[in-house]
Amino acid sequence: MRTTKEALLISGLIITIIFLSSSCGANSEKQTSLSTSEDIKVIPVVGIEESKLSDVIDNITYTALKDHPDHRAYRIDKVLIEDELIYIFDYYSGRSLSVYDLKGNFQFAITKPGQGPDQYLEVQDFLIDKGKIEVLDARGKLIFFNDNGVFEKSEKLPFVAQAFTKVEGNYIFQTGKIPNELGKNGKPCEVVQYNLETKKSECVLEIHNGKNPHSFKERNILKNIGSETYYGTYFNDTIYRKRGDKFTPGVIINFSSNPLPDETFDPKFSVSDFTGTLKDKVYHNPDLQGSSDFLITRFKGSGNNHLIYNSQERKSSIINSTAKNDVDGGIPLYWVHSVINRDLIMIYDSENVLKRANKLQEEKRQFNEKEQTFLDFASKFDTNDPLVMISYHLK
Length: 395
Known about the structure:
mainly beta, Neuraminidase, five-stranded mixed sheet, about 10% helix, about 40% strand, globular
């Protein structure tokens, strides 16, 4: 987008064009990638052929998340996997956090909607720090629970935030698109570093140019992945990376084939002025995941798409979220809720898993080994178990 190029010129970054070969499973094509002294990676989406799921994934496993008579998760808003525990937060329907071990056994739940000191009015985000659970409330409040889900304390923030993470003892908050004066000379600041002990805040990204056309919250936009901390927001083609005390461009996704109009970032235009044209455009719809070896995000363009960038091999792959599951005949990779090593994790409603197994049996009579493994799982499944953890293993 023009705004990104202008930002690079203003920053005085010298761009060197390097031609790299990039393969996508069985597909192979040349892509143009850009590198700078700041090690900015530019991924031209138009040059990447869409992959089949089997081009990228070689095996899929299933784990039932066990039923508990007093608790059920209905909606999957955010998933974290830490220290062999699965944390699933349902922000809206059940307004609760469900915790399981990696074998699917229920551990405990936190259900605290309300306005008390140990309650959240509306969950914006949550994180796990050394087993303890921290919840960001819409009122600008942090609520702390111990590793068994027992309330410890709450802390009021001097600003309202919509997402957060933690880096070396400091919090990093995304302030959303809400006007504020947290930047230099009272300018609006989009990402703020804050120390809970000293109460000191520092603006680390002063762009304030993203927009969200939907009422739902952006998910996984501020993420620690490996040793890096990334930030991406709706419509912005740049994924920022923390360097020292600032966030600078780390990855730029080039949607040159059909990008958003320049007025997308003009504060004079509201979201309603251009949302009617979105269905024909290609744009970033971030959901950041990954490991030290690869980075995953999403973009819109003929549906939702996963963009997987292998930083070690400098290869990029694109999988449409509704692409047929040609690995075991099961569920497509609709979402990437979390990552364990090279396993892309999706939490899915068990009823739909069983429906897909029944449909597969209607479609054919003979099954390969992986299809049979999926059907065997479904045949032994306890229909009372509400959720299934599906692990898609990257090649």
